[in-house]
Design brief:
Helices cover about 40% and strands about 30% of the residues. With about 210 residues, it is α+β, with helices and mostly antiparallel strands. The mean pLDDT is about 90.
Length: about 210
Amino acid sequence: IKVVTEGAVSDLTAYVDDSQEAIRSVLEKNGLQSVAGSSKMVYTYDPKNGGIDLTSSGKGEGLYAMDFDLKLSDFDYDSLVSSEIDEAGKEAALQDLKINNVSLTVDDDKMLDTIFAVVGVANGQDPAQLRSQAMSLLALGALQGAQISPRISGYATALSSFVGEGGTLEVKVAPQTPVTLGALAESSETQPAAILDLLNITVERSD
């Protein structure tokens, strides 16, 4: 399945009520009354090995660009939809579904600036102060998360930097070998923090 949108132009001010003139003004100042965009989504399923591949990308000119990729394997479609297999059997089939890898990349242009500007106007607060508060909360999360897993500290630091400076945020799930949902469920009951290592989740920010 492939879905492509090209040459689309959106007026994001249309979502704002006429009574919210201050918010509309912020959106217009950031050019959101005419945003050129494009998107693409491709989904494939291989019944021979139960492989699922989903890729999606989108772009709002002057705002952001996004890429998403998901790969799964051992998806037993026949068992999950069969009327002859009971719920326990379907649950077992679902537990065998494997996560091969997942990735999400977000490139910020003016998306974060616009979000904080709109929230600031809506709440009567300084956008710069709101942004600073968000960064502080993430920094606190880095300190607290380090007690659970050193990975969490890295995640929070990357997110804080992204919120404060923009740039590119990349989130990856890249296990050394595909991980079943059953293994994740078992790990969540015994060692929740170990899931981060099992899936080898990374979060990085770059300019």
